[in-house]
Design a protein that fits this description.
single chain, 18% helix, 97 residues, alpha+beta, three-stranded antiparallel β-sheet, 2 domains, globular
Length: 97
Amino acid sequence: MLKTYKIVENKIVQDENGIGNIKIYNNPDETEKKFVVEEYKLDEHTLNSSFDADELARIEFEPDHLAMIFKSPRIILQKSRFFSVLTLWALFCLKIN
């Protein structure tokens, strides 16, 4: 799912028209992944790494983008039992001409 934001008066606000320059994809489907790879020339392996729980968290510096892949553990208490959940997320800063 795509949400688009823009900067207005030094604040990030959601752009209902979908033309803002900050794009946030939450759990993108295959069509959205393909669009990101083709439209923004992002390496497919790098994009797929951001969804792989076995990948190492890291920062990559490339000539046309910066990629940051993070893992965030979370402990959940449910019915007196503890569960550990790993949240993966990535940030891609792209140079757009």
